[in-house]
Design goal:
InterPro entries: D-isomer_DH_CS1, MoCofactor_Util/Proc, NAD(P)-bd_dom_sf, Xanthine_DH_XdhC, XdhC_CoxI, XdhC_Rossmann_dom. The protein is of the alpha/beta class. The chain is built from 9 helices and 13 strands.
Length: 293
């Protein structure tokens, strides 16, 4: 090694990549060689992690591996989650001269199915991010101010801090069907964000912090800007309302940031639905019996 040069970094292992991708809530597939007969490139237990653009570890290379990668990426692109068994006669399906036979288990993980965009890194925004940490959501945290995000935010799973001096550009960068919560330090910025979110027309939900009088003022200006009543009804304001004994919504009496954040997440949970908790039962027993018999 030449003086001053850095040692080459080792490629990320499949188990390191799997842990990181699941922690970050990103789509990926795990391919596992479960059985083999005859001459095969790798042994049962060999694994490989596949994403849209990267591959971690190997099943031995050759056409068989490339077919596995293409199969996994096709399922990722189509959003086909869950497990499947694939049989590879290496001489027939893969055209490899070793001529063995491999059974492969492919598990496709969709990543976080819910995206929560939080605009504002103030007291309530900070508590929202803390409380959302155990949930399997991807959280995009925005603030227009310099150095607004706490140091610990860089270590929270599925959290991305996005400095965003331009509200319209920040909203334009959101994925479709995201849930947005607007609670910045500035009312003019709040209004610009709500305007941009409504203009997109593809948000799953929009929540705005503030009072009824704040929303009445915003609503009047947004109506003057051309939004109809049906569109304006998409905005929940005030956020963090709780149901009383008679079913009516009312604001919590506790106005601390933690209480507001807690009530806001409780209000948001029914809107998210059950996509994150789909009942994936895996392989049918008959498939497993055929595989191991």
């Amino acid at each position: 090694m030449e003086r001053g040069s850095q040692p080459a970094q080792r490629p990320e292992s499949w188990h390191g990549a799997l842990h990181r991708l699941q922690r970050e809530g990103l789509p990926h597939a795990l391919a596992t060689q479960v059985t083999s007969t005859g001459s095969t490139p790798r042994e049962p237990g060999a694994r490989m992690v596949i994403t849209e653009r990267e591959v971690f570890d190997t099943l031995g290379g050759g056409t068989f591996e490339w077919q596995t990668i293409a199969l996994a990426r096709g399922r990722l692109a189509r959003g086909e989650t869950g497990m499947s068994l694939e049989a590879f006669p290496l001489g027939g399906r893969s055209g490899q001269c070793c001529g063995g036979y491999v059974n492969l288990l492919i598990e496709v993980f969709p990543g976080s199915q819910t995206t929560l965009a939080i605009f504002g890194a103030g007291h309530v925004g900070t508590e929202l991010v803390r409380l959302a940490a155990p949930l399997p959501w991807r959280v995009l945290w925005h603030d227009s101010r310099d150095a607004a995000f706490p140091a610990w935010a860089g270590h929270q799973p599925r959290l991305e801090c996005r400095p965003s001096p331009d509200p319209e550009a920040a909203v334009a960068a959101l994925p479709p069907d995201a849930h947005a919560l607007v609670l910045t330090h500035d009312h003019a910025e709040d209004r610009a964000l709500v305007d941009a979110l409504l203009s997109r027309g593809d948000m799953a939900s929009i929540g705005l912090i503030g009072s009824h009088s704040k929303w009445a003022s915003f609503r009047s200006r947004l109506r003057d800007a051309g939004f109809d009543e049906a569109t304006l009804e998409q905005v929940r304001c005030p956020i963090g309302r709780v149901s009383g004994a008679n079913g009516n919504k009312r604001k919590s009496g506790d106005k601390t940031p933690y209480a507001i954040a807690l009530a806001t997440l409780a209000e948001l949970l029914p809107l998210v639905g059950s996509a994150e908790h789909a009942d994936l039962r895996g392989l049918e027993p008959a498939e497993l019996r055929a595989l191991f018999s």
